[in-house]
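Now for my pick.
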Amino acid sequence: MELLFEKYQGAGNDFVMLNNLDGRYDSITVEQIALLCDRRFGIGADGLMLLTKSDVADAEFRMVYYNQDGSRASFCGNGARCICAFASNVTNGKLMAKGNYCKFVADDAMHVARVSEGWVDLKMVDVDEIAQLAGGTFLNTGVPHFVRIEASKATLDNVDIMQVAPKIRYSEPFKPAGTNVNFISIINNNEIAVRTYERGVEGETLACGTGIVASAITASLTTNTNQFKVHARGGDLTVCFDAHGHSFHNVWLGGPAIKVFSGVINI
């Protein structure tokens, strides 16, 4: 199969993009996706997305997201921001019904994004349930996330993620699907640093949009603020929201969404 692809990154979180508006890639397999995401034998990416024709009223397109291992996931925050930039570019803005705004559907919910040159702000799902567990906080920001607060930035930098995170990811409270795992440092009331271990990648990524939102919401329980600059290993992003107790609405994630390169590959 010959595929025309583009590669995008958002704060170092990178994705293979396929224009599937005509359904040409409907038959892509788990094995093919894993190969395309392989950094030695394929293109290399944290995940792959299909830009697909919407099957939901009012949505301009459907985002179909696959993890690096080929498994399908309900959502990816940085991936969603990147696919909005991709959709705008490959259709010359035709999918942006209201200027630089677009509405699209993913497996978790309907979403709205605002697209500008090199930057995309994405409206995330509301969060109404937060669980305090031994050692951290558990919440769902489109996909499940566990967040552990570290004592300092130095402590965060020294976390052995590949040793610690898998034990949490597969632990009893999160079975059978498991969870993503985040380690954060609160720098000040409006600034945090985050490291994320992503399931499906089974390793640390340079940024994770849903994890960054989960981390900011968790930090807000301590700081009582609702706007954050977030330092991920691949770059800086922003998070803001309206908070009412442990309910968080009007949640927005902002950050870079950059085309890296395009090409053709045979698999």
Observations:
- The first helix runs from residue 30 to 37.
- The helical segments are 30-37, 77-90, 153-157, 161-169, 209-223.
